[in-house]
C-alpha cells in the first residue's frame, strides 16, 4: 500500500526562475533516444528556456523512485512515464500542477483525445493533472496456423470457441504423463499488477469498458464490478486452469513458450512485435486479435490501455514553459516519432484514420491491429487506492481462478465487499 505523508510543501530551496527545467523519462533505450532528440530540438528553438533530461534513477520500480522523490522534495519538473493509476494519489497530496489552469491546455487536449479519455483522466476535484501520452493495448497474440488447425472458428474468439481450442490443443508432447502444451499462459502470481494483463482486459472486453468503481450521489466511490461480466471472466479463467488448458507452472522462467510453440496464444502488448520479428522462426505465422469475449457479446471488445502519462510537479518554476515543451512531444510529429522510435502508441483518438500515421502503419502491418484497437481502450479508475483495489481482486483471483477454492460468484462478491470496506462504505 502506498502511504504518502506530506505537510504543506514549501518551495524547493534549489528552485530559481533561471535554473534549467528537468525532465525525467523512462530508462529504456528507445525512450532515452526519444527524450534526447526532443530536448535537443527544444534547446535550439528555445534557448531562453533551458531544459535538461535524465532517465529516472535506478530502483526497484519507477513508482517507488517517484514516491521517494516526492517525499524528499527532489522531484523533476516534468515526468514522462507516470502510470495513470498513481496520479490521483499525488493529485490529492497536492504535489502536481493542475494542468487545466494553464491557458490553452484543454483546447489542445480536445484536438488529440476524445471526451471519454478526458473524462477518464479528470480528477475527483474536477482538475486534470496528467497529459494522456502513450498506450500499449493488451491484445491476444495467436499462432495463426495452430489456431486454424484446431477448427474452432474465429477470430474474434468467444469463451466457448477459446475453451474448445484449449481442449483440442492440450497435449502431452513427450509422453511423460504430464501436459506440456497448452492453449495459453498468463502469469499466476497473486501480485496486483498481474491482473492488469489477464483479468482486467478480459473484464473490459466483456463489460464494454465498464469501470471497477463508481461514484455515488453522496460523492463516495463504491465497487461496481460485482456483475455478470466479472463473474464470467473468473469462470472462464477458472475453467482454463481447472482443465489444464492453461499452465499453472511459471513458463516465464523458461524459453519463450510461444516461440517454442508450447502455447498457441498469449495476452500481451505491442512490445511483443519487435521481439517476435527478431526471434521468431520464419515459419511461425502469428497475428494479434481482440481479447476473448462472452459467447453472447455484441459490438467491439475494449481492452486495457496500459497508459503512461506526463505530469508536471508543483516544484516546477515555470509550468507554462514546461507545458509548451510537453506539447512538442504530443503533437502529430511527436506522436509519430514516439511510434517510430519506441513502437508504443500515442493516445490519440484518430490514430487509425489519420493520414499522418498511415504510411508508418502500412510499413508495419503487425502493428495495425493495435491501431484499430486504440479506438476501444480504457485506463484505470481515478482512485488513490486503486492499487489496493487490484490487490483485493488479485487475492480472490488466486483463490478462485488458480486454486478453484471458491465459486466465481462468491469470489467476486467478496472482492467487491472488501473494496467497499476499503473505500469506507461499510
The amount of helix comes to 25-40%
How much strand content do the residues show?
Answer: 5-15%
Task: Report the end-to-end length measured between terminal Cα atoms.
Answer: 20 Å
For the biggest β-sheet, the strand order reads: 2-1-3-12-4-13
DSSP, total strands: 14
Oligomer type: single chain
Radius of gyration: 22 Å
Low-confidence stretches: 1-16
Descriptive account of the structure:
The longest helix has 17 residues, at 29-45. Strand 7 and strand 8 form a beta hairpin. The protein is globular, with a radius of gyration of 22 Å. The protein has helices spanning 29-45, 62-71, 87-92, 105-112, 115-121, 144-150, 159-169, 199-207, 228-242, 271-279, 319-330, 332-342, 358-363, 368-373, 386-402, 408-422, and strands at 21-25, 51-55, 78-83, 131-135, 139-143, 182-185, 213-215, 221-223, 263-268, 286-289, 303-304, 308-312, 345-346, 377-378. The chain has a six-stranded mixed sheet with strand order 2-1-3-12-4-13, sandwiched between helices. It has a four-stranded mixed sheet with strand order 6-9-5-10. It has 16 helices and 14 strands. It is an alpha/beta fold and 426 residues long. Mean pLDDT is 93; it is low at 1-16. 39% of the residues lie in helices and 13% in strands.
Amino acid at each position: 500500500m502506498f502511504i504518502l505523508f506530506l505537510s504543506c510543501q514549501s518551495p524547493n530551496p534549489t528552485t530559481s526562475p533561471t535554473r534549467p527545467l528537468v525532465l525525467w523519462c523512462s530508462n529504456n533505450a528507445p525512450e532515452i533516444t526519444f527524450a534526447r532528440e526532443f530536448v535537443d530540438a527544444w534547446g535550439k528553438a528555445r534557448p531562453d528556456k533551458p531544459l535538461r533530461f535524465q532517465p529516472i534513477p535506478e530502483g526497484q520500480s519507477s513508482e517507488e523512485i517517484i514516491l521517494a522523490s516526492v517525499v524528499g522534495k527532489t522531484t523533476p519538473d516534468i515526468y514522462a512515464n507516470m502510470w495513470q493509476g498513481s496520479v490521483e494519489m499525488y493529485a490529492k497530496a497536492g504535489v502536481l500542477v493542475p494542468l487545466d489552469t494553464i491557458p490553452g491546455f484543454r483546447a489542445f487536449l480536445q484536438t488529440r483525445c476524445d471526451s471519454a479519455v478526458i473524462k477518464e483522466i479528470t480528477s475527483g476535484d474536477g482538475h486534470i493533472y496528467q497529459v494522456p501520452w502513450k498506450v500499449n493495448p493488451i491484445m491476444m497474440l495467436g499462432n495463426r496456423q495452430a489456431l486454424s488447425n484446431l477448427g474452432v472458428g474465429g477470430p474474434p474468439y468467444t469463451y466457448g470457441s477459446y475453451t474448445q481450442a484449449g481442449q483440442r490443443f492440450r497435449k502431452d508432447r513427450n509422453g511423460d504423463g504430464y501436459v506440456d502444451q497448452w492453449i495459453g499462459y498468463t502469469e499466476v502470481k497473486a501480485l496486483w499488477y498481474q491482473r492488469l494483463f489477464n483479468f482486467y482486459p478480459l473484464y473490459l472486453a466483456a463489460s464494454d469498458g465498464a469501470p471497477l468503481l463508481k461514484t455515488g450521489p453522496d460523492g463516495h466511490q463504491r465497487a461496481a464490478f460485482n456483475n455478470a461480466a466479472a463473474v464470467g471472466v473468473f469462470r472462464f479463467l477458472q475453467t482454463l486452469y481447472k482443465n489444464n488448458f492453461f499452465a499453472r507452472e511459471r513458463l516465464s522462467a523458461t524459453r519463450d513458450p510461444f516461440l517454442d510453440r508450447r502455447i498457441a496464444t498469449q495476452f500481451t502488448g505491442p512490445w511483443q512485435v519487435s521481439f517476435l520479428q527478431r526471434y521468431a522462426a520464419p515459419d511461425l505465422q502469428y497475428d494479434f486479435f481482440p481479447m476473448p469475449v462472452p459467447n453472447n457479446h455484441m459490438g467491439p471488445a475494449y481492452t486495457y490501455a496500459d497508459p503512461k502519462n506526463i505530469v508536471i510537479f508543483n516544484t516546477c518554476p515555470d509550468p507554462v514553459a514546461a507545458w509548451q515543451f510537453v506539447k512538442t512531444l504530443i503533437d502529430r510529429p511527436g506522436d509519430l516519432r514516439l511510434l517510430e522510435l519506441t513502437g508504443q502508441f500515442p493516445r490519440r483518438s484518430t490514430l487509425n484514420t489519420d493520414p499522418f500515421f498511415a504510411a508508418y502503419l502500412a510499413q508495419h502491418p503487425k502493428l495495425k491491429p493495435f491501431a484499430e484497437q486504440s479506438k476501444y481502450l480504457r485506463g484505470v479508475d481515478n482512485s488513490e487506492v486503486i492499487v489496493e483495489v487490484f490487490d483485493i481482486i488479485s487475492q480472490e483471483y488466486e483463490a478462485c481462478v488458480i486454486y478453484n477454492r471458491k465459486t466465481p460468484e462468491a469470489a467476486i462478491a467478496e472482492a467487491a465487499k472488501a473494496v467497499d470496506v476499503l473505500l469506507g462504505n461499510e
